[in-house]
Amino acid sequence: MREVESLLNTQSGLIGVSGLTNDMRELMDEAHEREDRRALLAIEIFCYRARKYIGAYLAAMGGAGAVVFTGGIGENSAEVRARICDGLEWMGLKLDEEQNRAHTGGREGLISREDSRLAAYVIPTDEELLIARDTVRCVLGAP
């Protein structure tokens, strides 16, 4: 059982496919600098799965007003956001390439074009703060 847990938690996903790392920044560097085909495959699978989940959730919810990118990769990688959005035009999502590139490093804002039926935003989050707040609520028994 421990071996399976270890395999699923530490040796699958990006690192399992690439054989290198689970850090998207490092994979992007490898893909660009060395044209590492396993790094390219890991990035493509990651973006494909994100795109697939966006489509599935939009279908399950009957649509939405926006797609929001957050967290480490979502906040900081314009290239990954563009790859994820590539193919979502049929849903009405039209990415503004200039705005997408401009919104990294903690800069929040709209990254879709004005004529896009489905908006896309980058919204930074402070995951550690949210975890701390949830911990305090649990300790205090607050809702």
Features:
single chain; 143 residues; mainly alpha; Nucleotidyltransferase, domain 5; 2 domains; three-stranded mixed β-sheet; 59% helix; globular
Explain how this protein is built.
By secondary structure, this protein is mainly alpha-helical. The chain has 2 domains: 1-63, no CATH class; 65-143, Nucleotidyltransferase, domain 5 (2-Layer Sandwich). The chain has 8 helices and 3 strands. A 3-stranded mixed β-sheet has the order 1-3-2. A hairpin with an 8-residue loop joins strand 2 (109-110) and strand 3. The longest helix has 25 residues, at 37-61. The model has no long low-confidence stretch (mean pLDDT 89).
How large a portion of the residues is in β-strands, by DSSP E? Answer: 5-15%
Strands, total number: 3
The fourth-level CATH homologous superfamily of the largest domain is ATPase, nucleotide binding domain
CATH architecture of the largest domain: 2-Layer Sandwich
How much is the average pLDDT?
89
The level 1 CATH classification of the largest domain is Alpha Beta
Major sheet details: 3 strands, mixed
Rough shape? Answer: globular
Q: Which structural class should the secondary elements be placed in?
A: mainly alpha
Strand order of the largest sheet: 1-3-2
Q: Low-confidence runs (pLDDT<50, min 5 residues)?
A: none
